[in-house]
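User: My collaborator and I are trying to settle a disagreement about how two of our proteins should look. Neither of us wants to argue from intuition anymore, so we agreed to look at predicted structures for both before our next call. Could you fold the first one, then the second, and keep them clearly separated?

Assistant: That sounds like a sensible way to settle it. I'll keep them separate. The first protein:
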Amino acid sequence: MNALAPLSHPVFRMLWGTWLVAHICMWMSDVAAAWMMTSLTTTPIWVALVQTASTLPVFLLGLPSGAMADILDRRRYYILTQFWVATVAILMCVTILAGWMSPPLLLLLTFANGIGLAMRWPVFAAIVPELVARPQLPAALALNGAAMNGSRIVGPLVAGALIASAGTVYVFLLNAVLSVIAGFVIMRWRREHKPSPLGRERLFSAMRVGLQFVAHSARLRVVLLRIALFYGHSTALLALLPLVARGLPNGDAGTFTLLLASMGAGAITAVMFLPRLRAKLNLNQRVTVGTLLQAASMAVIAFAPNLYVAVPTMFLGGVAWITVANSLSVAAQMALPNWVRARGMSMYQMALMGSGALGAAVWGQVATWSSIQTSLCVAAVSTVLAMVLARRLWAAHHDEEDLTPASEYRLPVVSTPPTSGHVLVTIEYRIDPAQEEAFRAVMQENRRSRLRRGALHWELVHDLSQPGIYVEHIVDESWTDHLRRFERMTADDVALRERARAFHIGDAPLIVRRFVIDSTIRS
């Protein structure tokens, strides 16, 4: 598979360009904010908190943002994110020109800018599978990573040049201009928004279902754990990099920019070789190699005496970062059906950025208590230990599922659909008691399937007087949500349903009943 093949699609190419510009703006803003903080204070924890303020909104707002990206018009939502970032950049300019900037206010505005990132990331992650065929998805995600890391070169270089020649305020001014231009480019995209025939999901219900999907998908949970462990440790390098740059001979803004650019160059170079790497190594092996390389780069940069050592080390750190991030991002995408993709990827983003925000604060505090070198070395060692733990968990939960939308399903029909109240569905099975253990194992999988698709409650009851009679109880929030569960069925869900029905014996069919729960009668 050609690493550049997705760029042959005009719409993907256009939106990928806006993604690149958005990340250039993000890095320009982060570099300017981090460097400004070093001019306001030299305390390591304040400097590290810039990284926390930038990424924490993604952790706090990722789920509602992902839910909105699944239920709203993604084109309009994506446009909104660009204008939000532009507005925050203008506020940064005004604050600096007025002379009001202080460490707490800088963190507050950086947090506001991070809200734009929290809104933008899940909607774009959900858009990409719409634009390219499934075989091209790994290459498309790698190109997204290349854009993010290309921006790691361009953004800091532009920011560093502007800081040195004109001042920090011009970095935020250019950020605002580029964000507005990107917003108008997205307006050219003529995506047709197709609302569900069942209407728009309510926000809190959509959030609940997204959380349930992750909670009952062991494969996705392990992916989230692995990216959280990796990024929570690797962020030590990014959070402390301004201070590492200052500590090098003649360290200044240009040094900081060069180190970031070196890491970005390593990531972009790695993207061109990822298809070949995927052919030779499985996901577990790629993540292991990348994690070990990342740990080594942190340990070396801690004691780098000059740029001749620091620059190639940062280059290898970029190679490690994109290898792990792309591998786990693809694994997350492959574990998600289309109907919950934005919510699932928002939780991937929350795991990544939330661990980054926490990690930056932790490693910054460790550096404050001890030294920058100690903090980076501890992070390097604990990275390897965390990787060993996650590798064991992955071995138990790596089975792939067929998440293709079910081609055939029949919606239940009732004479008078209820307008309120929870819906209880009962399914009665008559099984051979000798098959009880196997049946219960399949029903455990059935439970996860029902809850992943949005059921409020599930249980299996056993008739004491007739050993072969089992009744499955499923509770849905409403009649509409009951119908949504059928819309969300995948090929794997259909296969599981047939496996469960195969245990039913006798000539009589399964007995399926639907009840509305009367909420007017209370104890």
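The second protein, kept apart from the first:
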Amino acid sequence: MNKKLLSLLFLIAPFFTFAQEKGLDQQIDEAFGNATGWFVDFIFYQIPFTDTINIYWVLFPLILGATYFTFYFNFINFKGFITSINIVRGKYDDLEGREDHHVEIAKSEFTDEEDNPDTIRIEGHDGEVSHFQALTAALSATVGLGNIAGVAIAVSIGGAGATFWMIVAGFLGMASKFVECTLGVKYRDIEADGTVYGGPMYYLTKGLKNKTLGKILAGLFAIFVIGGSFGGGNMFQVNQAFQLVENITTPVGGVSFLHGKGWAFGLVMAILVGIVIIGGIKKIAKVTDKIVPFMVAIYVAASIFVIFANYDMIGGAFLQIFNGAFSPEGIAGGAVGVLVQGFRRAAFSNEAGIGSASIAHSAVKTKYAASEGMVALLEPFIDTVVVCTMTALVLIITGNVNAENASLNDAQAILLTSGAFESAISWFPYVLTVAVVLFAFSSMISWSYYGFQGWVYLFGRSKKMEYTYKVIFCIFVVIGAAASLGSVIGFSDAMVFAMMVPNMIGLIFLAPKVKEELVRFMDAIKASKA
């Protein structure tokens, strides 16, 4: 233990030393940008659409895939909504004991045989967490800063009309989430001690008929999810949280006592994150099932207060949203741009089609894969249709959607949202600061689990590999808090969107398997009512 502690201090010590030098943030940002710029440029290559509008190519598979799944599964995102709520409520828990299903006992080729000789799919309630805990664990990774800063950027660039397309993207994304999370449960590995390993790495490898292709895609996804966990799921989160904390502690005309000390804020967050993630998904789920409902309730309640405090403007706000999405001026002046902004930010916010959520949902206690897929489809609804729409309405009603804000970066956008709430609730920026820190914290602990699953897929399931990843993850918390935002945003967006490429290929090919699971689960529900 002492050797491990000394090793950790040795790795982190240079950051303490360099953190005191002037211009550290700029040095880190420059080095980070130089190392990752080529990858960011590739993922966010823009296809010219008109003389003034370019469209990110990564949006096409996300939009088209979500639309395809919506039709293929007969509008499961709408028809299955009530069933999904009932599953979370526990209405169908008794089904778990109604059917004896096939027990697969197989040595896993991904297992470190010295530590884990067998991978066993255990009879009964396979998994580690409940439906509700799996939902909150996945939500904690998506409900957060993208709902605050991301929405502000979308409506600032695309106008109020971007809100409409965010809502559309949210509804369509529900179908993608259903597919990937059903597959996550169907093809997961469960160790003899009950530990679950799941996600796109496993359904790509096990599900696709072409095993070579499956392994290549799974390996790519594992690399991307590790990068995404360090970027979008870690550095982006802590960086934005520090920006708001520094702002709230800055006196009028003065400088915050935290100025230039992002590394110190990051160190505190790293310690807190480390305490939780050492316990694995069970510990993470126990934290998220308390934090997520609390922080979402606070944020939505504040949004509702601001909206209804200006109740006379609600009708006008919805009119702006509709006109902005469909008006002739919008079409002539860039309606496609409005659509792109709405879809891009919705995709980054709810991650539907990205594949990350299937990792958390694969740990659920269930024998019906489709039951968890249906629980998962609630995520884009909560994340995008509810929370993002609330944020957009607050910004529109308080008059914070205008051309002057079109050039905002994420750091400025989060302050714009804070100011919008402050106009109606003077003390709310303090509450929002706490909420943002909780959003960031919960996102980081969930994303650490996502990245860990990719890590052990590539490097083995030994304790040594587990602790290596978790130490590196905590070090990146410190780096993220100290780095300038520009390179962090570009890298995190790119790695998260890159996950979509191998994942979406698998979802398309494996959709028939998902339909089989859906039929099996719905038949079980019908049989229980007979």
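Some points you might bring to the call about the second protein. Confidence is low (pLDDT under 50) at residues 8-12, 14-22, 97-125, 328-334. The first helix runs from residue 2 to 19.
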